[in-house]
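Design request, tokens follow.
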């Protein structure tokens, strides 16, 4: 078990950051909370009934029926993402990317806030709500209108669409997970920001990085299930701590 600190960034962390060449940043819904994108766990999260509703609708089994209710839910989330701006924490991450010879973000979020600026190396473990994937040929296409409108169209191959999201009862693609695992295994430092660590398999990455000797820092509002894997857990708002950490 490491040290849990409130709003304090010890010099050991900043000294390490200045020495290392490879950094992995792992982000969860907490980093996008101030952009008003709903979180499903943690303080201020969606109420349980809403979580159950989303969980139920965003299952592969249910979504294949593509009712108006599914599309309304997806359009509601899409609208929230379109109206959102990258948070101070997202912007601070973009700024430090060029400092390292190996810099990667692994995100469990469905929003595209990491991808809005210059950050090109972001592994989106759970896909992006702004895109649809063809069920037949796997073509990825941005949703320019709304889910409701997009779903009236077909892919050029004639196939129907699915949201480019890892649905609750779907298994992550092997190659994607392998990439994430390789990054966690080979980084010198691993920083988790706003992840509860409850969603698998992403929640396994801190333990994987620790097992290979990385230095681990967690930034979150409250301690999490994965806290024991970190050398330091800094409790506080990511918008306040991340910019301070990366100055
Ligand atoms: Zn197709």
């Amino acid at each position: 078990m490491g040290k849990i600190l409130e709003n304090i960034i010890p010099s050991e962390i900043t000294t390490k950051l200045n020495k290392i060449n490879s950094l992995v940043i792992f982000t969860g819904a907490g980093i996008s909370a101030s952009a008003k994108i709903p979180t499903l766990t943690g303080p201020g999260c969606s109420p349980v009934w809403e979580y159950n509703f989303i969980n139920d609708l965003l299952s592969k089994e249910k979504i294949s029926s593509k009712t108006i209710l599914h599309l309304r839910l997806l359009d509601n989330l899409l609208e929230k993402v379109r109206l959102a701006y990258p948070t101070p924490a997202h912007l601070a991450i973009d700024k430090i990317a060029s400092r390292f010879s190996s810099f990667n973000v692994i995100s469990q979020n469905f929003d595209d806030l990491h991808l809005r600026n210059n950050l090109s190396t972001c592994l989106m473990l759970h896909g992006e709500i702004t895109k649809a994937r063809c069920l037949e040929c796997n073509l990825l296409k941005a949703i320019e209108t709304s889910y409701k409108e997009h779903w009236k169209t077909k892919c050029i191959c004639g196939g129907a669409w699915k949201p480019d999201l890892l649905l609750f009862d779907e298994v992550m693609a092997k190659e994607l997970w392998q990439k994430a695992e390789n990054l966690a295994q080979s980084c010198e430092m691993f920083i988790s920001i706003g992840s509860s660590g409850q969603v698998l398999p992403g929640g396994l990455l801190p333990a994987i990085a620790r097992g290979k000797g990385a230095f681990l820092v967690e930034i979150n509002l409250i301690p999490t299930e994965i806290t024991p894997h970190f050398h330091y857990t800094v409790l506080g708002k990511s918008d306040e701590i991340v910019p301070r950490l990366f100055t």
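Comment from the thread starter after seeing the answer: thanks! The pocket of zinc ion is lined by residues 134, 136-137, 139, 155, 157, 159 (CB under 6 Å).
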